[in-house]
Amino acid sequence: MTRSGSSLRLPPLSLYVHVPWCVRKCPYCDFNAHAQQGDLPEQAYLQALLEDLDSELPLVQGRELVSIFIGGGTPSLMSAAFYQQLLPAIEQRIPFSKSIEITLEANPGTFEQARFAGFRYAGINRLSLGVQSFTDSSLQALGRIHSGQDAFTAIQKAQALGFEQINLDLMHGLPGQTPAMALADLQQGLSLGTSHLSWYQLTIEPNTEFHSRPPKLPADEQLWAIQDQGQALLARAGFEQYEISAYSRAGQQCRHNLNYWRFGDYLGIGAGAHGKLTNLHQHQLLRHSKLRQPKAYLASPGKCQSRVVAEDELGLEFMMNVLRLNQGVETELFAAATGAPLATIQPILDQGRNLGLLETDSARLAPTLQGRRFLNDLLELFV
């Protein structure tokens, strides 16, 4: 993708930090997560992350970070001292914007709760709590190690410590779950006064325990009922659905995820982390991925696979992100983010509009309601 004189522009820059360890891997999880064996190698991993970041600094000179997202695995297994060292070291290398959003994924168990104050002191200003359900039987079916009461306590403790931005991860369509149970979970989450919910249906993914031993899930008509009734409940509570599984009160969207969905740039450091960067000098979009296995990553933290996004992949790469947003994006963003003129995908846009899956005009492109429900069908047009 080399086009001199293109309209390619630098988008905002974020950083994703991956912590690959968890107490035990949940049966539905297909993330790069590894059950903890003994003490975590905190100092070794800290040094590896910084060496990893140092290897990518030449690609982002002169830029600043608008957001950091620390995911996993279970990042809250790491001590507060780990983040009190990591975040200042990152800022020494890449300036933070004045309004930077720094999110940490955390389990709501009592072990992690004891660390919340230290996380806040480290500069983390947004918590994403992996609640999944407030019902103990559902949590047990999911292999979670916290209780519904733990979740209540964790949310209240985080609020008392001054975390104004709190996301709750909630799942529906769980084994043995009725629509009434799913809506009760959602109502519980709404009653606690948080500003953001990630509410999504359990799916069975390859290479998971649930894939090899599938649980009995609700029937399709029950899943549709949960989805429709849940979205109505969220709307009545003042939550706007701005992305496929993300809902927030006005102005409380996750800025880090918005940067992903608007095809922004992000560095990825840590075992199995991925990144995407714009190279204006070469008029290229670059993809990076790091070694997945923690031991291999610790031995070679700067090692990565890199590739240039090919011109014929641009339409799909762009649309896989922006079409997750209910309101879509400005039409001109395609050229600004990819360097290619919109005309290169205009026939596909016309096809999507004719199928009732896409809304396009001179200013904006967005999925229709039908397009959001059948997003994979819409994306296949761009393959």
Summed up, what is this model?
The protein is 37% helix and 23% strand. The protein has 383 residues and is of the alpha/beta class.
Set down the secondary structure blueprint.
Elements: E1 13-19, E2 21-22, E3 34-35, H1 42-56, E4 65-72, H2 80-93, E5 96-106, H3 110-113, H4 116-122, E6 126-132, H5 136-141, H6 148-160, E7 165-172, H7 179-191, E8 196-201, H8 209-212, H9 220-236, E9 240-243, E10 246-248, H10 255-261, E11 265-269, E12 274-279, E13 284-290, H11 294-299, E14 304-308, H12 314-322, E15 329-330, H13 333-338, H14 346-354, E16 358-360, E17 364-367, H15 369-373, H16 375-380
Parallel strand pairs: 1-4, 1-11, 2-3, 4-5, 5-6, 6-7, 7-8
Antiparallel strand pairs: 8-10, 9-10, 12-13, 13-14, 15-17, 16-17
Helix pairs in contact: 1-2, 2-4, 7-9
What can you see in these coordinates?
With 383 residues, this protein is of the alpha/beta class. It folds into 2 domains: 13-259, Aldolase class I (TIM Barrel, Alpha-Beta Barrel), CATH 3.20.20; 311-383, Arc Repressor Mutant, subunit A, CATH 1.10.10.920. The protein contains 16 helices and 17 strands. The protein has helices at residues 42-56, 80-93, 110-113, 116-122, 136-141, 148-160, 179-191, 209-212, 220-236, 255-261, 294-299, 314-322, 333-338, 346-354, 369-373, 375-380, and strands at 13-19, 21-22, 34-35, 65-72, 96-106, 126-132, 165-172, 196-201, 240-243, 246-248, 265-269, 274-279, 284-290, 304-308, 329-330, 358-360, 364-367. Strands 9-10-8-7-6-5-4-1-11 form a 9-stranded mixed β-sheet, sandwiched between helices. A 3-stranded antiparallel β-sheet has the order 12-13-14, with no helix packed on it. β16 (358-360) and β17 form a beta hairpin. The two termini are 17 Å apart. Mean pLDDT is 94; it is low at 1-5.
